[in-house]
Amino acid sequence: MRVQLNFKSGVPVYLQIVEQVKAAVAAGSLRPDEALPSVRVLAEELRVNRNTVARAYGELAVQGVVSNEAGRGCFIRDHGQPLRKDARRAMLTQPVDALLVQAHHLRIPPDELLALIQERLRLLEQQKEKDTEP
């Protein structure tokens, strides 16, 4: 797993880790039952405090993306959708609203915005297929 941090983005480091792990799971590059690097290893690799990585892993566990197994480590959960439908929708509300506001300010018509979203979904599916090929 490769995590790239932007210390100037204003987004807390632990949230950057959370979002990148979730994106890797969604893209299929992290698979069910796959172990994440240990807190110590990832903290050293990213040159951040161990508590930062531990907080990210804790948040991923709360969101149902990973399971923490005492003495073994942190693993990607093995079921299709880790969160209930209403929880998943709630997590997407803010980014979708921000996208709509941005599209409005850029004067992108709704049909063009939907076409862009469909294009990005197709690219994500293609990437998932590529990642699952032997």
Brief descriptors of the model:
mainly alpha; Arc Repressor Mutant, subunit A; 2 domains; two-stranded antiparallel ribbon; 2 strands
Give an account of the 3D structure:
It is a single chain. This protein is mainly alpha-helical and 134 residues long. It folds into two domains: 64 residues, Orthogonal Bundle (Arc Repressor Mutant, subunit A); 48 residues. The protein is built from five helices and two strands, in the order αααββαα. It has a two-stranded antiparallel ribbon with strand order 1-2. β1 and β2 form a beta hairpin. It is globular, with a radius of gyration of 17 Å. The two termini are 18 Å apart.
- So what's the CATH class of the largest domain? Mainly Alpha
| Poorly predicted runs | none
Would you identify the CATH H-level superfamily of the largest domain? Answer: Winged helix-like DNA-binding domain superfamily/Winged helix DNA-binding domain
What spatial order of strands do you see in the largest sheet?
1-2
Provide the domain count. 2
CATH topology of the largest domain: Arc Repressor Mutant, subunit A
State Rg. Answer: 17 Å
**Estimated helix fraction:** 55-70%
CATH architecture of the largest domain: Orthogonal Bundle
Which band does the percent of strand residues land in?
A: 5-15%
> Can you count the beta strands?
2
Largest sheet: 2 strands, antiparallel
Overall pLDDT, averaged? 88
Enumerate how many helices there are, as a single number. 5
Distance between the termini: 18 Å
List SSEs in N-to-C order: HHHEEHH
Instruction: Tell me, briefly, the overall form.
Output: globular
**Class by SSE composition:** mainly alpha
